[in-house]
Design brief:
Layout (H helix, E strand, L loop, with lengths): L10 E4 L6 H31 L6 H29 L4 E3 H34 L4 H4 L2 H27 L8 E2 L6 H5 L7 H35 L3 H30 L6 H24 L2 H18 L1
Parallel strand pairs: 1-3
Antiparallel strand pairs: 1-2
Helix pairs in contact: 1-2, 1-9, 1-10, 2-3, 2-9, 3-5, 3-7, 3-8, 5-7, 7-8, 8-9
Amino acid sequence: MEVSNETTTTAFILLGFSSDPRIQVLLFVLFLVIYLLTLIGNLSMMLVISVDSHLHTPMYFFLRHLSFLDALYSSVIVPKLLEHLLSQWKTISFVKCFTQISLVMFSGATEACLLSVMAYDRFQAVCHPLVYVGAMDRKVCTGLVGASWAVGIITAVINTLFLAQQHFCGPNLIRHYACEIPPVLLLTCSDPYTSVISLLITMGILGLGTFSLLLGSYVRIIVTALRINSATGRSKIFYTCSSHCLVITIFYGSGIARYMTPASGSVLEEVLSVQYSVVTPMLNPLIYSLKNKEVKAALQRMLLKKSRLTF
């Protein structure tokens, strides 16, 4: 009887960034500040939308869920990154690694769906203002958010299960600071064909579906805006949609740049990944708060009310 000498990997080692202790301390401080700003910004956005009745509209209902996803996505990645920057042992167990992969996929897929839903909401508000309230009532909004979460869960579960069926026998060095499918697939000792096909199919369907809804919504919005004779009316439409367009550009731009780069552990790959998974969740609440008069007004009302209660 033939005896196999292969062993099964039970943990991975995240190589992360530089091994220089001084650089690691600087990176720890940098990422800690970014993480705190991300949490403060997104949790504040959720709080303001929840307590201010002026923001109880479909757009801000979706924005509250987007802020939750950004806070979740950052919390899946950054705490472990901070731990490894100050730790001599940079290992992560098989279970924790695959949990991180599934949560990253869930957050990313759900956010892609939610951004498309928000584009559809803007389309209804601009192109069908007279029936907007009925078309985007509470039931419809809840259903759209629920569908986005369902797509995210299905995408994460399918791809994580296929990846978990692969055999990992060594080496166990992940040339990255977090567990993501591309660098982990490089370590499999079995044929990754099923995992790759599963990833391509789910990402293709998700990307095509969300991008089609985004493109269709904004084409109709632009056409409607151009038909308006008033320059003030056109500028109001474009201003209303500008924050969402900027968030979409950052999300898809950094995501495409990140996942179109081969998983090689290069400096460029690390920079693009940090932009996508660490910096972007911090930028979203800043964009919506700085470019949105209603959010700024709600923040002022909340701070004013708090100061009155204090004195």
